[in-house]
């Protein structure tokens, strides 16, 4: 069995991921009552008989939710069970992990000075905080701070 997703990443709630599930009977005897279950997408199909060497393909979709974006990755597992000779049960599974794209830096241009403002503000705030609380000794005398931004001093 093989499961693939049509995308490598997702970005936002509402994005649709299409999964292709290929179930192949690699034995030399038919399998009966083969159940393909993908709880994330709601796929639950039964193949009455899957002949030896035969394959069946299923396509199913999932719409990304905000909780998936917040989780920063989407895990999807499909399970296939079936009956072999003498009613023996056979089970296999496959999974796909699709990460969310990072929204913080996807449009960051290091050559555009306006993009560094927020990062610089955070850095300076942490630096100043560190100067004033270093070692718990309280305020240092007249801390001086100079920053070289793009060659300007």
What does this structure look like?
This protein has 153 residues and is α+β, with helices and mostly antiparallel strands. It has two domains: 2-99, Immunoglobulins (Immunoglobulin-like, Sandwich), CATH 2.60.40.10; 107-146, no CATH class. It has helices at residues 66-71, 117-133, and strands at 2-5, 16-24, 31-38, 43-50, 55-63, 73-83, 89-99. The strands form two sheets. It has a four-stranded antiparallel β-sheet with strand order 4-3-6-7. It has a three-stranded antiparallel β-sheet with strand order 1-2-5, with no helix packed on it. The protein is elongated, with a radius of gyration of 27 Å.
Secondary-structure topology with pairs:
Elements: E1 2-5, E2 16-24, E3 31-38, E4 43-50, E5 55-63, H1 66-71, E6 73-83, E7 89-99, H2 117-133
Antiparallel strand pairs: 1-2, 2-5, 3-4, 3-6, 6-7
